Amino acid sequence: MELTRVDASLYNPDLAPIPPDKRSWGTYNYASLWVAMSVCIPTYMLASGLIAGGMSWIQAVLTILLGNLIVLIPMLLNAHAGTRYGIPFPVFVRASFGVRGANIPAILRALVACGWFGIQAWIGGQAIYSMLRIVWPGAANLSGSNWICFFLFWAINMMVIWRGIETIKFLEGIGAPFMLVVGLLLLFWITRKAGGFGPVLHTPSKFHDTPELVRFFIPALTGMVGFWATVALNIPDFTRYAKSQRAQMVGQALGLPAAMTLYSFIGVAVTSASALIFGEAIWDPVVLLGRFNQPLVALIALVALLLATLNTNVAANVVSPSNDFSNLRPNLISFRTGGLITGVVGILMMPWRLLRDFSSYIFGWLVGCSALLGPIAGIMICDYYVVRRRQLAVEDLYLRGGAYEYLHGFNPKAILALVAGVAIALIGLAVPAVRWLFDYAWFVGFVVSGGLYFLLMQKQVSELK
Question: 407 φ, ψ to 5°?
Fold first, then answer.
C-alpha cells in the first residue's frame, strides 16, 4: 500500500511496505532459499554433534526432522503478515511491542543473528584456510594466515549484502541445486572409503537406557528448534516479496524440512564414516576434509562448503539484523549500514569460542538463543492471530500517536510478558531441580510469554471483537 503519512523516525525506503507489483518471489524461490540456507556447515555440525554426543544415526535424523517440523509452524504463522502487508519483521513487531518498543525484540533477534553471522564467517574463513593449505602450503604456515582468511570471507559477505536483496535471491537460486549435488557426491565418496552404508549406519547408540537418551534428547530437540528460531521471527523480511501466500507457504513447507533432514543425514553418515576411517568421530567438516589424502576431492568439497556458507550467512544472518538496526534510527541507518554493523558485532561476539566443541554449540549457543526467541514468537503470534485477528493498520505502524503508540511508543504488557518468559526459562540454569525449564527453553518461553500476553491484553481483545 502507499503511505500518505509517516514519521521520519520510523520510516525509510528499506522498511516501507513492498507494493504487490514489486513482489517477484515464487514457490521455487522460497524452496531454494531454504535448501540453500539449510545446506551449510552449521547444519552438518548440528547432525554430527548429535552423533558425537552418543545418538545413533536414526535418532539424530529423527530429532532434527521433528525439530524442523515444530519450528515450521511459527515460521508459517509469522510469514503471513509479511506477505499480506509487505512489511518486514521490525515493522510487524511494532503492532505488539509499540512503535518504539519494537526495538527491544528486534535488537535481541539482531544480536543472535550477529552471533550466527560470526559463526558462519569463522567457519568460512577456516574453509579458505584449509583450501590454502592444499594449494599453497607455504602461505598457510605463515603466522596469522588463518585470521587473514577469516577477514577475507567476512569482506566477501559484506560485498554481497552491499549489493542488495536481489543478489541474495540470485545466489540462492543457483546455489541450492549445486550444493545438494556436491553434498551427495561427498557422501558417496566417504561411505565407499568406509566400506559402504552398512558399517556406517550400523553404529549403535551410546545410551544404555531410555532415561539416559531422554536426558540428551530434550535439550537437543530444543537446540534443533533454536537453530531456526531466529528466522521464525524475521521470516516477514523474506515473505514481503512473495507473489502470494500459497507461494511462500508451499515453498517453505517443501524446502525447510526436506533440505534440513537430507543434509543432516549427510552430516550423520559422513561423521559416522569418519569414526570408522580415522578412529574418532570428527564433527567439524573442515577439520575432517583436512585429514583427507586426496587434495582434489578435499578442494572441491571445501569450495562447495564455502559457497554454501556464504549463501546461508547473507540470507539468514544479515538481512534481518540489517533491517533491525535500521529500525533503531531509520533516518540515519540504511539496510546497507545495518549490514556493516552486523558484521562488526559478529566479530566482537568471538565465534571461535562458540565453536569450541559440540556441547558449547548445541547446548550452550542454540538452547541459550531459544530462551530469548521463543517468548518473542509467542507474543507475536498471539497478538496477530488472537488479539488483532490478522488485521493491521499499516499506516499506523509508521506513525507516532497512532494505534500502536501504547505508552510513549512502548507496550508495557508485551515487555512484561517477554521478561517473564525469558526469566522463567533461565531459572533452569540457576536451579538444578527445574533444569527442564532451560532444556525446554523455547517451548517454555513461547507458552509463558504468549499466554501472559493474552491475559494482559484482554481489554484490547474484547474491544477488537
Answer: -110, 100
pLDDT at 338: 82
**CA-based max dimension of the chain:** 72
Is 46 a domain residue?
A: yes
Q: What angle do CA 157, 363, 382 make, to 5 degrees?
A: 80
Q: What is the pTM of this model?
A: 0.82
- Structural domains in the chain (count): 1
Q: Cell for 156? A: 566477501
Residues 85, 2: contact at Cβ < 8 Å? Answer: no
d(CA 386, CA 457): 10
- pLDDT tens readout for residues 153-212: 888 888 877 776 555 556 555 555 666 676 677 778 777 877 777 776 776 778 878 888
pLDDT score for 190: 76
Q: What is the CATH number of the domain that holds 294?
A: 1.10.4160.10
pLDDT at 419: 96
Among 11, 81, 1, 39, smallest CA distance to 399 is for 11
The full length of the chain comes to 465
Whether the pLDDT of residue 304 is over 80: the answer is no
Q: Is residue 432 part of a domain?
A: no
What single-letter amino acid sits at 290?
Answer: G
State which residues form the domain around 320: 8-356
Containing H/E element for 277? helix 245-278
In a domain, 430, yes or no: no
Please report, as a single letter, which amino acid is at residue 281: A
Answer yes or no: are the C-beta atoms of 405 and 418 closer than 8 Å.
Answer: no
pLDDT at residue 236 in the model = 93
Neighbours of 441 (CB within 10 A): 33
The pLDDT, as a whole number, for residue 176 is: 57
Whether residue 160 lies inside any domain: the answer is yes
Specify which residues 242 forms β-bridges with: 25
- The helix, strand and coil proportions of the chain, stated in percent and rounded to the nearest 5, come to 75, 0, 20
In this prediction, residue 243 has a pLDDT band, given cuts at 50, 70 and 90, of very high
Its sign, for the CA torsion 429, 433, 435, 437, is negative
